[in-house]
Amino acid sequence: MTERSSSKAQAIVSEVRRRIVDREWRQGDRIPDEAELAVEFGVARATVNKALQLLAEEGLLDRKRRAGTHVTVNPARKATLTIPIVREQIEQAGMEYSHRVIAQRRSPLPAEIAARMALPEGRELIHLRTVHYGGDRPFQVEDRWINPGAAPGAEAVDFQRITANEWLVRNFPWLHADMAFSAENASARDARLLETRQGSALLILQRTTFNDLGAITSVRVAFHPGYTMIATH
Amino acid sequence: MTERSSSKAQAIVSEVRRRIVDREWRQGDRIPDEAELAVEFGVARATVNKALQLLAEEGLLDRKRRAGTHVTVNPARKATLTIPIVREQIEQAGMEYSHRVIAQRRSPLPAEIAARMALPEGRELIHLRTVHYGGDRPFQVEDRWINPGAAPGAEAVDFQRITANEWLVRNFPWLHADMAFSAENASARDARLLETRQGSALLILQRTTFNDLGAITSVRVAFHPGYTMIATH
DNA sequence: TTCATCTCTATGTCTAAACTTATTTTGGCG
DNA sequence: CGCCAAAATAAGTTTAGACATAGAGATGAA
Q: Residues B132-146: pLDDT tens digits?
């Protein structure tokens, strides 16, 4: 093992990864079992197990009881995205954060959002439209529905003072979230709020979060044109 | 612990998550240390450790030596995306997969791509443009650069027969990948290849992969209008 | 042959105990 | 009072050993 690393398990991860990348172990090959690797690396089997589980999670290895561990043939590419908090993202870029609530009222749920939130169409929820600015330039517009059934107290909050996101995140941890990325041509309203021309391509993030009481909130975020979301693996 | 679950660690994960969601433990609170929880749940400390590490990875807990474990105040939202293999995605949708190579030649690297691949501008790489179809409708267009320096043998491959993605994935596992999502208005060429009108909003995925020899490939994928990429957490 | 059942094996999980290490707290010293 | 060193603490890691369990392969009956 040429790798030096903080932990033995990490060293094994690196070494196994190297063997795969260097094609000593090829796609589809069965690799030695945990007990053998434990002897080879001079560690306990539990340590090998931990390392191989990490690599399996990463998608490089396929592990099955009795069948052993194989190098994945067609590794599906996984990537972890971190959805930053708007305020933090803007402030990290050295700009001044501000936001403006365009509308806040109770409205009946449209069908599309109702489906996403698994709530009956027409149910009255809090509907919020907000623009977030970095300096004096619009950064993103959000169109949010909040379910007071799962987030009691939401009716009484003044979302001019605290952003809906921050209030929700602080008060209603969620169990599960659905997310979807897509691209849309800016509508007249999007364009006006983002101060861009109608039709420009916008990255859209649609996110719905749930706790044990049901859907907490569903939000559609439209980023300013040119915005790029980064992920690594 | 009301949760029944396959493993003790998973049961602890569920129970701790419940306590957080039910606000028995609030954002910022310090939770009992591993030893105490081990006693409470009647398991070994290593089992509690495993459970809490999972929750920390998920972003619900902050752990620091000596300082203890706290409920994260502003959990940054993480999501795991799986980038499917085009062929599999199309075939799963019950459509027939096909692809057409529009161009395959050696060309000097433009500056933008060179920066992404950490290669000198002007270096000659293999440049490939491909359209992937589901049935008779274009599904995505890819514009790919392949570095034979990190992927030897690429010059000799006929990418009409096997897609570049499949050939690369089968032969050159990577160590690291950069990914970026954005939205662009379809250029005249994009529009023609995707059989849509110029200017329609396209979801763009830009991905560059590296092995120990450097950048293997950098690809820009433009999805057909309306395409949505899903993630859950 | 084909199907059901048994056996065996490699991974999955857990434990108790020890040691390591980052970080906070404390307490002494100037 | 401020600074630094020492002590204490909670998480991080590893180990040897044990038992659980999925599932591939062997065996045998119909």
A: 999 999 999 999 999
> What whole-number distance in Å separates Cα of residue B55 and Cα of residue B233?
12
How high is the pLDDT of residue B37? 98
Task: Break chain B into its structural domains and give their ranges.
Answer: 8-71, 80-232
Mean pLDDT, rounded, for B98-115: 97
CA angle A39, A45, A46 (to 5 degrees): 155
- b/e string for A177-206 if b means 16 or more Cβ within 10 A? bbbbbbbbbbeeebbebbebeebbbbbbbb
Number of inter-chain CB pairs under 8 A, A vs B: 162
CATH class of this structure's domain B80-232: alpha beta
Protein residues in reach of strand D (CB < 7 A)? A 6-10, 42-47, 50, 64-67; B 33-35, 45-46, 49, 52-53, 56, 63-69
Output DSSP code: residue A59: T
pTM, full prediction: 0.91
Nearest CA in chain A to B166: A74
SS3 of residue A202 by DSSP? strand
CATH number of the structural domain A8-71: 1.10.10.10
pLDDT one-digit tens code per residue, B162-195: 999 999 988 999 989 999 999 999 999 999 999 9
Q: Indicate the SS3 state at residue A164.
A: helix
Q: Closest CB to A179: pick one of B17, B79, B176.
A: B79
Predicted confidence (pLDDT) per residue in A188-215, tens digit:
999 999 999 999 999 999 999 999 999 9
Nearest to B229 among A22, A174, A181 (CB): A181
Least Cα distance to B166 among B80, B97, B114 occurs for: B97
Q: Tell which phi-psi region holds residue A55, choosing left (phi > 0), alpha (psi between -120 and 50) or beta.
A: alpha
Question: Which residue shows structure tokens 């400390």?
Answer: B45
